[in-house]
Write a structure and sequence with these properties.
264 residues, alpha+beta, 6-stranded antiparallel β-sheet, 3-stranded antiparallel β-sheet, 28% strand
């Protein structure tokens, strides 16, 4: 069956433009009035028969940076781009909402890249989990300086060795005892970490060693997920996880803006 749906083209911008100014722009090139407006307003031409090209928006992080492609929030709004200019994505998508979105929600799946530095600890992301948000990682690059074998580790879930240890030592009470000890280990590490983060703290060799020891003790409760370039890892709700240094991924997130940091 032949597709007879009308193809629509247009552009949108934020600031007001008088009728007289618009007419002057249109008369500059009567054969291509839309292109004249887009070039003058430096905005994207939205075509319902063509995909939008998304401009990456880099968001600095203590561990590296994120590259947003569909992020729309207070920290930043991504833009569509073409040879004429740029348009914030929400404006571009709602210009021809029915054709571009159909019955889908305007709340977009969040698409971004995570680019942690290769330095151990510094490039490790927070240990976090979510009550509503699902995340999926696609591994795109593993730094050979950080992971010489080409296989990296993403920390996720409770470590199976810890589960086996607590099952053997505490029988049916193992879940509550394990979680109690895990929380205690996190608290001990957090107390020292906050002490180090105080600007007035004199960081001694002993304090640094204590911080590393307590961090290791806490992270040993979390499992190791081995990954190579091309691997896909999904984190459902309530799944504790932390991307590690030197592992770059493309990330897809459901449109729920939440963060429950378990440990940093």
């Amino acid at each position: 069956q032949q597709n007879t749906e009308l193809i629509k083209r247009g552009c949108v911008w934020k600031d007001r433009l008088s009728t007289q100014n618009l007419q002057e722009i249109l008369t500059q090139n009567p054969d291509a009035p839309l292109e004249s407006v887009a070039r003058n307003r430096q905005c994207v031409i939205v075509n319902t028969a063509q995909p939008l090209r998304l401009e990456v928006l880099n968001i600095p992080k203590p561990w590296g940076h994120e590259g947003w492609y569909t992020g729309v929030e207070k920290r930043g709004v991504v833009k569509a781009t073409d040879g004429y200019g740029k348009t914030e994505l929400p404006y571009a998508l709602t210009l021809f909402k029915k054709q571009l979105l159909a019955d889908y929600s305007t709340a977009l799946i969040l698409l971004k890249t995570l680019n942690p530095v290769a330095e151990d600890v510094v490039g490790d992301l927070y240990y976090e989990m979510h009550e509503e948000k699902w995340e999926v990682y696609v591994v795109t690059e593993i730094d050979k300086g950080a992971w010489p074998s080409g296989t990296g580790i993403i920390k996720a879930g409770l470590h199976p060795d810890k589960i086996a240890e607590y099952q053997q030592n505490h029988a049916e009470k193992w879940p509550e005892v394990l979680l109690k000890d895990f929380k205690q280990a996190i608290t001990e590490y957090e107390n020292v970490r906050r002490q180090i983060d105080e600007p007035t703290t004199d960081i001694s060799t002993e304090l640094s060693a204590q911080e590393l020891s307590l961090r290791k003790k806490a992270t040993e409760f979390v499992g190791d997920c081995s990954v190579k370039v091309g691997d896909i890892v999904s984190f459902p709700v309530f799944q504790l996880h932390s991307l590690q240094h030197g592992i770059k991924v493309i990330e897809f997130q459901t449109p729920h803006y939440e963060r429950l940091i378990v440990m940093f």
